[in-house]
Each structure stands twice: as C-alpha cells, then as structure tokens.
Amino acid sequence: MQIAGSDLRITISIQKNSTNTLTMNKFSAVLLTLIFIGCNKTTLDLGKIDFSQPASVYLKGSKGELQYGHWELAKNDAAQDDPKLKLVGRSEISTVYRITNSSEKNQFSFLGYPSIEMMGIEMVEYKNKLVFYSMYPEGKKTPEILLKLKEKLGKPSGVVLDTLGKTNILLPPILKTLPKNDIKYFTDEYGDQQVSFPEHYIWKRNGMLYQFTLLKGTKIVTNKIVAIDINAFKDRIIFGYHMPDKDPILGNYLN
C-alpha cells in the first residue's frame, strides 16, 4: 500500500499488557483511516478517456450545470443592435462542468501532467457521453506533452501555421519547444528572415477532434488541449465552438 508515493512498512509488536493493546488498537484504527484516504485520492487523466464509455464512468458524483438548447447568434428587434449569442430551443440537453478550485483541479491531469494554477478545466456531457474537455496542462512540460500526443494519436491530420520574424523575442522559446522538423526558415519578399511553425496541431480520430495549441510567451511556451466530439460540435452545444462551419481551425475537419 502506498501513501504519498512512499512505501509504508510498519511492524507492530503487541504486548500482552491490556493498556498497550488498547493503545495499539487506536493507533491501528487511525492508520487504516489514513490508508483509506490516501488510496482513494484518484486522478482522472483526461488524455486516457475512452469517449465510447458512458460519462458516468468518469464523472460519477461530479456536479455540473444543466444546459438546454444550442447556441445561436440572434438579432434583437432593434436593427442597430449587434447579434447576440444565446441558447435556443430545449431539445439539446447537456451538462457543463467547470473546475476552477485548486483542490478540485488536482483531481485531473492530462497524460500525467497537472493543470496550470491560473486556468480552469471545462468538460461537457451530452447524450450520456463525455463530448468535450478543455485544459491547460503544465506549461514547462509543453515539449513532452506534444511528443506524447504524437505517440498516442500519430501524425496530425493537419496544422495551422504561424510566422515570426527571426529577431522576434517570442521566437527563442518556440525554437526550444518544437521539434526541428516542425520549424521552417525562409526569406520573405522584402528580404527579411522569417520562421514558420505550427501554432495548432489537429488530430481527427474516431469521431473526435483533438486540438493542441501553443500559447507563446517571452520565457516559455504553454499549451492548451481541447477534445471535442464532432457530432456535438455540429449540434452547437459547446460555448466557444458554436459556429462549426465557420470555425477557422476545426471547421475543415467536420466531414
């Protein structure tokens, strides 16, 4: 049995003295309680979820917010008002889970890596299946996470490229993060040296879309991972992914 990653080996010698026996019994009860608590602190690894399983397998006991309908851009009666996003209808029923509390976030990981402190985790249940998650895994481990994703999902179905000038202060962390084969150097029409690299990696696998996004910084490159069920994407139930046909990144992978 392990507690906090260390083997617990305790040898107890119980004497015949009744007082000592009572003391040891109390100690054993406390010890068993600690073992029970330690062994039941499970972590849900989002990177290992089987999306064909019922959501209850992963979200049993979790509390979410019921959502009715799908998202649409709708205009008010006043012609000058800009369209506003709102839920329409009640036939689509989903449950949205938003995890922002640090102690709750500690119960989740992605391929073994924890979530960064300042960002939350979101999951959506729809038609009794987990159809969406969004998480910001540990930023310093971005190169390792990308490598594990490639090992797990294979060659990306596509990438969305970004370009920076060779002297841009955001470039050095990118060069340290990405594999050399993913980086291209070229000279633009003005004679300036440029560097092209993937900002988004996309995988289409078994009715799911996976999007790994690099978040640039002057010191390190952090990342965001999204997994979304294609049918749920088309049903427009997920806020932020409510215009699938016009989505500039994932819209090309609907069919």
- Distance between the ends: 48 Å
Which residues form runs of ≥5 with pLDDT under 50?
1-40
Mean pLDDT: 84
Overall form: globular
What is the SS-derived class?
alpha+beta
Main sheet makeup: 9 strands, antiparallel
Query: Number of helix segments?
Result: 6
- Please bin the fraction of helical residues: 10-25%
- Spell the H/E element sequence: EEHEHEEHEEEEHEHEEEEH
Task: Tell me what portion of residues adopts beta-strand conformation.
Answer: 35-45%
How large is the radius of gyration? 24 Å
> Oligomerization state of this entry?
single chain
Task: Give a count of the beta strands, DSSP E runs of length 2 or more.
Answer: 14
Features:
255 residues, alpha+beta, three-stranded mixed beta sheet, 14 strands
List the helices and strands and how they pair.
Blueprint: E1 2-3, E2 6-7, H1 18-39, E3 44-45, H2 56-59, E4 65-74, E5 84-99, H3 102-105, E6 108-110, E7 113-114, E8 121-126, E9 129-135, H4 142-153, E10 158-165, H5 171-177, E11 184-187, E12 193-205, E13 208-215, E14 222-229, H6 230-234
Overall description:
- It is built from six helices and 14 strands.
- It is of the alpha+beta class and 255 residues long.
- The strands form three sheets. Strands 4, 5, 8, 9, 10, 11, 12, 13 and 14 form a nine-stranded antiparallel beta sheet that branches.
- A hairpin with a 2-residue loop joins strand 8 (121-126) and strand 9 (129-135).
- The longest helix is centred in the first third of the chain and has 22 residues, at 18-39.
- The radius of gyration is 24 Å and the shape is globular.
